[in-house]
């Protein structure tokens, strides 16, 4: 059995001096950020083949690659100083806490590890995601509120026989998926160009934005009060289902033809794929009560929905869940177009006014997310096929696969990625082995999946 061995661990800091007079020296957290104090960080990583030494002589050895990644990471932190900081908690007179990000440049954790005997094929060829992939990510088991003492960003570069896996763990109070890949894209850009004139294509906007939140920090109860809300997840497996551009077009056309001819509504490609997946999960779950309610929670971005939209490069959280609820009977007696239409209706309701009403209500009664509240009879979809995953070239070629870590995994966690080929979508499904194995035998579902 392959074992992971840590070769070295160090702290990477920004080379740029701290500007103690900067307006972004201390960044107060918004309701979007504060809701996530007790959940896990974001964990995403990319698998690369090793560079060809004949084509990349400056990266001919592992030590040279690691050195290049460390230097470029330090340079990238010049633009993303909050990632090298820590969360600061301040106790208020009413026995509540307020939180901010202190851009203190305490540094990012960087680990170089090796997995002797493990190849790229060992990661991408098995039907189910190998358990060892979870060990490719640092800070496993850490919660976001622990950012008061733990790094807000940790990187682990795991060397395989013929490849590298670059895994990143980012505190979810600091960044959402859009911001996570903004950082990753910027890091790979700086590493690839190796220019003395350091710039990034999309500079981050560090100031947090939220109405009525700029005058004073928000008061919330201690996140530790929510830690007794634990649940024991069942044994889980993960599988990546690949949907080609052609199959996605078929699913979308089918869904739009099934629900009617209302030209004001157009089911999206992603809604069609998720509806197809949702029906299969319910079909394949054993012991399902036909009248039992099931929900599909979808994490949607607020950036373009706000008026005016958030500025390009806004770095932070700007997402919230929408909830699509139905019974197993309704879901299975109707076609996939009906299921996709339910998603479409709920997502269409998320206007500027709806978002503002929700969070202004939240301000009156701040509520931190509890894990057990979101996992019962639920699928939860996060991430997006719009994120630039496969454009991350650090200087020796593009990645060949993307995987996520153990953070926030439960029965029903659905992670959405763009596919390796343009227009494709990959769905990383985390479910019980029984459900996942049954889906592999579900001819109706697998008919749209590229094996």
From TrEMBL:
Keywords from the named record: Transferase
Coiled-coil stretches noted in the UniProt entry, renumbered to this chain: none
Molecular function terms, GO-annotated: transferase activity
Superkingdom in the source lineage: Eukaryota
Pfam families: Transferase
Protein name: Acetyltransferase
């Amino acid at each position: 059995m392959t074992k992971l061995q840590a070769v070295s661990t160090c702290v990477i800091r920004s080379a740029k001096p701290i500007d103690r007079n900067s307006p972004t020296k201390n960044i107060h957290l918004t309701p979007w950020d504060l809701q996530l104090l007790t959940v896990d960080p974001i964990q995403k990583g990319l698998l690369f083949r090793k560079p060809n030494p004949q084509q990349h002589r400056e990266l001919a050895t592992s030590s040279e690659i690691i050195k290049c990644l460390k230097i470029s990471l330090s340079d990238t932190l010049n633009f993303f100083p909050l990632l090298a900081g820590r969360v600061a908690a301040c106790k208020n007179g009413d026995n509540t806490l307020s939180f901010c990000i202190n851009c203190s440049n305490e540094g990012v954790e960087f680990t170089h590890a090796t997995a002797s005997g493990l190849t790229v094929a060992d990661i991408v060829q098995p039907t189910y995601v190998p358990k060892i992939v979870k060990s490719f990510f640092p800070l496993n088991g850490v919660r976001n509120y622990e950012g008061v003492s733990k790094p807000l960003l940790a990187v682990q570069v795991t060397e395989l026989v013929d490849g590298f896996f670059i895994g990143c763990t980012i505190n979810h109070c600091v960044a959402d998926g859009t911001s996570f890949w903004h950082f990753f894209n910027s890091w790979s850009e700086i590493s690839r160009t190796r220019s003395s004139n350091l710039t990034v294509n999309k500079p981050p906007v560090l100031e947090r934005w939220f109405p009525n939140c700029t005058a004073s920090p928000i008061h919330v109860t201690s996140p530790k009060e929510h830690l007794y809300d634990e649940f024991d997840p069942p044994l889980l497996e993960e599988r990546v289902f690949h949907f080609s551009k052609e199959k996605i077009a078929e699913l979308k056309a089918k869904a739009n033809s099934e629900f009617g001819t209302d030209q004001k509504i157009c089911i999206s490609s992603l809604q069609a794929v998720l509806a197809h997946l949702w029906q299969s999960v319910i079909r394949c779950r054993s012991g399902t009560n036909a009248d039992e309610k099931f929900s599909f929670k979808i994490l949607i971005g607020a950036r373009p929905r706000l008026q005016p939209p958030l500025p390009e490069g806004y770095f932070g959280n700007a997402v919230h869940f929408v909830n699509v609820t139905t019974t197993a009977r309704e879901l299975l007696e109707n076609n996939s177009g009906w299921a996709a239409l339910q998603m479409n209706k709920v997502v269409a309701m998320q206007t500027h006014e709806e978002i503002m009403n929700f969070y202004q209500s939240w301000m009156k009664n701040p509520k931190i997310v509890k894990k057990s509240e979101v996992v019962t009879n639920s699928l939860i979809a996060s991430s997006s096929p719009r994120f630039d995953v496969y454009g991350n070239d650090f200087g020796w070629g593009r990645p060949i696969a993307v995987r996520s870590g153990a953070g926030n995994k439960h029965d029903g966690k659905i992670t959405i990625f763009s596919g390796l080929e343009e227009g494709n979508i990959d769905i990383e499904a985390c479910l019980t082995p029984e459900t996942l194995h049954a889906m592999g035998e579900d001819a109706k579902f697998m008919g749209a999946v590229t094996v």
